[in-house]
Amino acid sequence: VMSLTELHQEINYRNADLTDNDRPAKIMHVDLDNIYDPDPAQQEKNLGMLLDRIVAMGVNTVYLQAFADPDGNGSADALYFPNRHLPMRADLFNRVAWQVATRTRVKRVYAWMPLLAFDLPANEPAAQDVVVTQGKDDGHLNMGYHRLSLFSPRTQQVIKDIYADLAKSSTFDGLLFHDDVTFSDYEDASTWAMKTYKQWGLPTDLNQIRQDDDLLGRWTILKINALDNFAMSVANIVRQEQPDLRTARNLYARVVLNPRSEVWYAQSLDNSLANYDFTAIMAMPYMENESDIEGFYKTLVDVVKSKPNGIKKTIFELQATDWRDNHLIPSEELASTIKSLYDLGAIHVGYYPDSIQQQHPNPSTLKAVFSTKANIPIMNP
User: What is the DSSP letter of 76?
Assistant: First the structure.
């Protein structure tokens, strides 16, 4: 039941005609792999626990995995909705999204999807059109994910088909593009990519590009634009069925902290703010092996605040697990970090992953700090 205070906030929100960028997003990022179970009874129990956790956590936005990644390699082996190109592990995404939307106070459910990281069956012709990483030494970034080449027309069509099938089979409010929307400075070296670089007026010798700052800069921005433009094109396909669709994308923190790293990731904060409704920065210092944790968060917020509408369009997504040794980040530390981000001026905050099996993070601990951020901010005149 909505309290009088919450009702008053909601009326104010609607009367002021504010956008989602004005309403503080409090985000739970959910792995549907942790809800799925081959035993229907256990799967129902898992779904019930998830709904209970969402209510207890006090979040208003859920990023919900729509792809299956049971081996944890970051690429979709199957999908949780009917589609033309990949196995369907279970027809689960739409059901869970609907339950979250109707049985909790969540305002927005986003389908979390890869853009390129699909592990197609071997009999799919496009399965062989993959991103090729040029040979390099260990001192350079390796993106790791198995990805389809953006530059192949037949992979583009497969991906568009998958997103069209998602849109037709499910009801949701937004798309969160996975952190696979990226190329390193040694990618893509596929045949399809080389043809595109030639059309762009660039050499097809990637070593030559990397050794010339002007060529490297041009190559980087063209790849950034190619990735973002393709993401927008598939979002427009989804909008044919979901006309009010919002878009968000994951962005590596290093891109924000070090402008040079745009070259290493083919990502740009400025471009992301311009193209997507939200940019979800992976504000994950342990993943980045940061020693100055407090300085890490402060610098992120400071850079975002320096951008026009940056703070309104940016989500700071925290890690609830330290993947270096898979230990759980204490709920008290997460709550303290959320408070400090709010104190620094952040509006939108979330965390990943939520673990129903381990009941982590603790809902009452996080709800206490989430609730300090009013749903309707005081707007500047």
Answer: B
Q: Quote the CA–CA distance of 43 and 124 in Å, as a whole number.
A: 31
Please give the pLDDT value at position 8: 65
Angstrom distance (rounded) from CA 353 to CA 328: 10
pLDDT confidence tier of residue 137, bands split at 50, 70 and 90:
low
Its pTM stands at 0.93
Provide the β-strand partners of residue 279. Answer: 249, 314
Distance, CA of 271 to CA of 261 (rounded, Å): 14
Task: Assess whether pLDDT exceeds 60 at residue 379.
Answer: no
Q: Is the confidence at residue 139, as pLDDT, over 60?
A: no
CA distance 70 to 92: 15
Instruction: Check: CB of residue 187 under 8 Å from CB of residue 134.
Output: yes
User: pLDDT band at 13, cuts 50/70/90?
Assistant: low
What the block records as the tokens of 360 is 């982590």
Cα of 24 vs its chain's centroid, Å: 17
Residues 6+ apart with CB under 8 A from 196: 151, 226
Q: Hey, what are 321's tokens?
A: 């697990």
Whole-number Å distance between alpha carbons of 318 and 352: 6
The angle at the Cα of 366, spanning 363 to 369, to the nearest 5 degrees, equals 145
Q: Residue 318 in contact with residue 29, Cβ under 8 Å?
A: no
The H or E element containing residue 345 is: none
Q: What is the pLDDT of residues 218-261, one digit of tens each?
A: 999 999 999 999 999 999 999 999 999 999 999 999 999 998 99
Helix, strand, coil content of the chain in percent (nearest 5): 40, 15, 45
Residues 6+ apart with CB under 8 A from 381: none
Distance separating alpha carbons of residues 74 and 372, to the nearest angstrom: 34
